[in-house]
Amino acid sequence: MGKKNHSDAGMHRINLSAWLVVGLLGASVLVTLYPFWLAATNAVKSPADYGANGPIALPQSFDLSGLLRFWHNVDFTLKLFNSALISGAVAAIAVLLSLLSAYAIGIGRIKGSRTVLFIVTMGMMVPQESLVYPLYYIMKSVGLFDTRTSVIIIFAVLQSAYGTYLLSAVLSTFPRELLEAAEIDGASRFEVLVHVVTPLLRPTLMVLATFFFIWTWNEFLLPLVLLISNDNQTVSVAMGTLNTQYTSDPTTTAAASLLGLAPTVLFFLIFQRTLTRGIAVGAVK
Questions:
Q1: Cα gap 198→189, rounded to integer Å
Q2: Theoretical Cys-Cys bridge with 172: which of 11, 106, 233, 248, CB 3.0 to 4.6 Å?
Q3: Is residue 215 a part of any domain in this protein?
Q4: What is the dihedral of CA 111, 117, 122, 123, to 10 degrees?
Q5: Cβ contacts of 112 within 8 Å, gap of 6 or more
Q6: Does residue 211 lie in a domain region?
Q7: Domain count, the chain
Q8: Helix (H, G, I), strand (E, B) or coil at 63
Q9: End-to-end CA distance of the chain
Q10: Is residue 159 part of a domain?
Q11: Are 45 and 59 in contact (CB under 8 A)?
C-alpha cells in the first residue's frame, strides 16, 4: 500500500512538472505572437479608429486603406519579386558553394584544410558594417553597382561561410565505408559527391537553404547601400522608408510591418513540411 502511495505521489509530481512546462511554453508563445497580433489588428484599423481607441484595443472597423496605401506607394509587388529573386538565388548558390567547399575540406582532405576552415570561421565574425566601404567601391569598379547581381554575389559568399563550417563538420565524420564502396565501383569524386554524399545530406542542405533564404530576406544594410534605384530595392529597404514618409501614419506602419513579415513566415511554414518529409526519407534510407 505504501509503495502504491509513493508511486502515485511520484506520478503526481511528474504530471505537475509537465503541466508547468506546458504552461511556460504557452506563455512564451503568447508573448512572442503578441507583437504580430498588434501589427495585424492595427493594420486593419482606420486612422479615426486608431486615434480614438489606441493601438491595444480591438479594431472597431475593417479598413485596408493602410495596406493598399503602402503597397501602392512603394510598389510592393516589385519589391516582393526582388526579395524573392535575390533570396532564392543566394540560398541556391550559397548551398552549392558550401557543399563543394565542405566536400573538399571534410572528405577530400585537401592540404591546409584546418587553416582554410579557420579562415572561413574568422570570416563569419567580421561585422557587415566593416565591409560596406570596400564592397561599395568594388562593385562600382566592376560595373555591378545598383544591380541585384551584386547583392546576390556578396550574400552567397557571406552565407556560404557558415554553410562550409557546418557541412565540413558533418562530412568529417561521413562513413568511410560508403566512400570506399563507391570508389571500388569505379565512381569518380564528382560522382561520389552527386550520388552518395548529396542524397544523404539532403535534409541538412534543405535546412541551410531555408536559413539562407530567411537571413537574406531580412538583410537591410548592404541592400540599402548597393541598391539605390527603386526598381532594384528589396522589401526590407522599402520598409526603411517608413522612417521618413509614414511616421505620422501608424496604421500604414503596422500594415507595412505585417506585409514585410508575412512572406518569410509563409515561406517557413510551407517549407517546414518539405523539411519534415526530407528528414523522414533520409531516416528511412
A1: 12
A2: 106
A3: yes
A4: 90
A5: none
A6: yes
A7: 1
A8: coil
A9: 50
A10: yes
A11: yes
Return the pLDDT at 246.
Answer: 44
CB 69 within 8 A of CB 252: yes
| Helix/strand/coil for 126 | coil
What pTM, to 2 d.p., does this model score? 0.83
pLDDT tens readout for residues 246-280: 455 788 888 888 888 888 778 777 777 666 655 55
| Parts of the chain with a pLDDT under 50 | 2, 245-246, 281-285
User: What CA–CA distance (Å, rounded) separates 49 from 63?
Assistant: 9
User: pLDDT tens across 65-104, in order?
Assistant: 888 888 888 889 999 999 999 999 999 999 999 999 999 8
Residue 20 within a domain: no
pLDDT at site 217:
92
CATH code, 235: 1.10.3720.10
Q: How far apart are CA 282 and CA 276, in angstroms?
A: 10
Long-range Cβ pairs for the range 178-184 (8 Å, 24+)? 179/107
